[in-house]
Design goal:
Oligomer: single chain
CATH superfamily: NAD(P)-binding Rossmann-like Domain
Number of helices: 10
Radius of gyration: 17 Å
Number of strands: 8
């Protein structure tokens, strides 16, 4: 690190769990954030501020006025623009010393096959079961740690699925891809504005923990946040040896 970086990240360097070696690892890491909406708007800025050296944003949507209630990477001037370009502008203003790459497209298996060999950690900030299962399957295939978050109405959840950990379940161990889940969205059900910030910031924290290996990441555990009661619940989740996605991948 140069002198400017030593000063910029000095509060990280004071933490023995990070220190100089850890910050240098963050600066050399590549995180993929899939979804530049509510969750991504909280997760990506904290990754950028923390000094993740290379961040790739994927999203196919444009900014709408209704997004501004919770998607804090975007401003009124961003309405009508692509979310990834709006997000890139925000992140570059936050930290000009890192690389921000954007892909204005839906996440597909083919796209993730191209990207994941160079990715250190994936943050799933999407809002549909179909996307989550596709991302999970690709992360299992390429053995890439996945930080999965979701938020709807007043309820959020987050967990970490790490193929490098033999005991770690994958997303499909918990939510079978063979089940028919009813897709619901913020546009029909509503969303409490700060909730996506809380869950998205937790995703960023978990990604940094996974990259540096300190503390206890949410592997084999799922955390539930109820914004109505300000209650946090946690339950253990186990790997399914018969899982159709990861059962034969270990």
């Amino acid at each position: 690190m140069n002198d400017e970086q030593l000063l910029r990240y000095s509060r990280h360097l004071l933490l023995e769990e990070i220190d100089v070696a850890g910050q240098e690892k963050l600066l050399s890491s590549h995180a993929l954030v899939i979804g530049a909406g509510g969750l991504g708007s909280a997760a990506a800025p904290y990754l950028a501020a923390a000094g993740i050296g290379h961040i790739t944003l994927i999203d196919h949507d444009q900014v709408e006025l209704t997004n501004l209630q919770r998607q804090i990477m975007h401003t009124e001037k961003s309405v009508g623009k692509s979310k990834v370009n709006s997000g890139k502008q925000f992140l570059q203003q936050l930290n000009a010393g890192i690389q921000i790459e954007t892909i204005e497209a839906k996440a597909t298996t083919a796209l993730l096959d191209d990207l994941l060999p160079s990715i250190d950690v994936v943050l799933d900030c999407t809002d549909s079961f179909a996307s989550r299962h596709l991302i999970n399957a690709s992360c299992v295939k390429h053995r890439t740690p996945l930080i999965s978050g979701s938020a709807l109405r007043f309820d959020g959840q987050i967990s970490v699925f790490d193929p490098h950990n033999i005991a770690s379940p994958c997303y499909a161990c918990i939510f079978s891809p063979d089940e028919n889940f009813e897709e619901v969205s913020c546009s029909s059900m509503g969303i409490f504005s700060p909730l996506v910030g809380i869950i998205g910031a937790m995703q960023a924290a978990q990604a940094i923990q996974v990259l540096l290996g300190f503390g206890e990441a949410l592997i084999g555990r799922m955390l539930l946040w109820n914004a109505r009661t300000t209650q946090i619940d946690e339950f253990k989740i186990s790997r399914n040896p018969e899982c159709s996605v990861c059962g034969k991948a270990r």
